[in-house]
UniProtKB/TrEMBL annotation:
Residues 13-89 form the DUF7344 domain. This is DUF7344 domain-containing protein. Pfam families: DUF7344 (PF24035). The lineage of its organism: Archaea, Methanobacteriati, Methanobacteriota, Stenosarchaea group, Halobacteria. It comes from Natronobacterium gregoryi (strain ATCC 43098 / DSM 3393 / CCM 3738 / CIP 104747 / IAM 13177 / JCM 8860 / NBRC 102187 / NCIMB 2189 / SP2).
Amino acid sequence: MCNDAIEFDTLLDLCRHVRRRVVLGVFIDRSESTTVTALAEAVVEHDCDASATPRTGRTNATIALSHRHLPKLDSAGLLEYDSTNHLVTPTSTFDRWKPQIGAIVEADPELETPIDL
């Protein structure tokens, strides 16, 4: 789903959760699709759930991404989430908002940037 009319307030709301910031941060320097598993590993690597073990953290992150965060980002038109193949791809809307997304991710004192897979 592509929504070219995304507004800045909507972008800020989408970036409110650290897991979504990590996911969006992954695509700042990447234009190709990636797997939900790889994104979950990035979330765990950036310590978004410090109380979890690496295995449970990855499982929790995968579930949260698949059921909550990726559908929100897809609905807003920033990412395309293929739940059947477990792939995520940035959209042209993401490309247009990339400078603002980059600034938001960069401003997070808890995230080390760039966010790599």
